[in-house]
């Protein structure tokens, strides 16, 4: 799973969000490493809806603009858990080879 997708799904773990809210939360969670532009974000949202990892929760209108809210599905949560387990195993393997400074213990 690519990092932007991971953080997009992670941004939905605490409840539904609209597109801009997802982008903001993903940037926050990634410490600004992931910056989802509109083109990237909405393409990813469409792809994740198509794969049933997220779904449209609701739509409303704010200041005359339609706002669509997305939520994580059980399939999306499972994909997120699986990827987190994979990332943890990767870090563990790296720490065995190059030492604990990988985890931030030393600068």
Strand content: 15-25%
Let me know the number of strands.
3
Structural class designation: alpha+beta
The major pleated sheet works out as: 3 strands, antiparallel
Strand neighbour order, sheet with most strands: 1-3-2
SSE ordering: HEHHEEH
Distance N to C terminus? 28 Å
Q: Report the C-alpha radius of gyration, rounded.
A: 16 Å
Uncertain regions spanning at least 5 consecutive residues: none
Shape: elongated
Report the mean per-residue pLDDT as an integer.
Answer: 92
Percent helix range:
40-55%
Q: How many helices?
A: 4
Notes on the structure:
- With 107 residues, this protein is α+β, with helices and mostly antiparallel strands.
- The protein is 54% helix and 18% strand.
- A three-stranded antiparallel sheet has the order 1-3-2.
- Helix 1 (3-11) crosses helix 2 (19-29).
- The mean pLDDT is 92.
Provide keyphrases for this structure:
4 helices; alpha+beta; 107 residues
State the gist of this model.
The chain has 107 residues and is α+β, with helices and mostly antiparallel strands.
SSE topology sketch:
Elements: H1 3-11, E1 17-18, H2 19-29, H3 38-50, E2 54-62, E3 65-72, H4 74-98
Antiparallel strand pairs: 1-3, 2-3
């Amino acid at each position: 799973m690519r990092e932007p997708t991971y953080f997009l799904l992670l941004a939905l773990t605490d409840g539904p969000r609209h597109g801009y809210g997802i982008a903001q939360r993903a940037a926050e969670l990634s410490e600004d490493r992931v910056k989802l532009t509109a083109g990237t974000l909405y393409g990813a949202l469409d792809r994740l809806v198509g794969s049933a990892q997220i779904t449209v929760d609701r739509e409303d209108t704010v200041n005359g603009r339609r706002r669509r809210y997305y939520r994580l599905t059980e399939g999306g949560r499972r994909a997120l858990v699986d990827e987190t387990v994979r990332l943890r195993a990767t870090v563990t393997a790296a720490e065995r080879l190059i030492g604990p400074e990988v985890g931030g213990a030393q600068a």
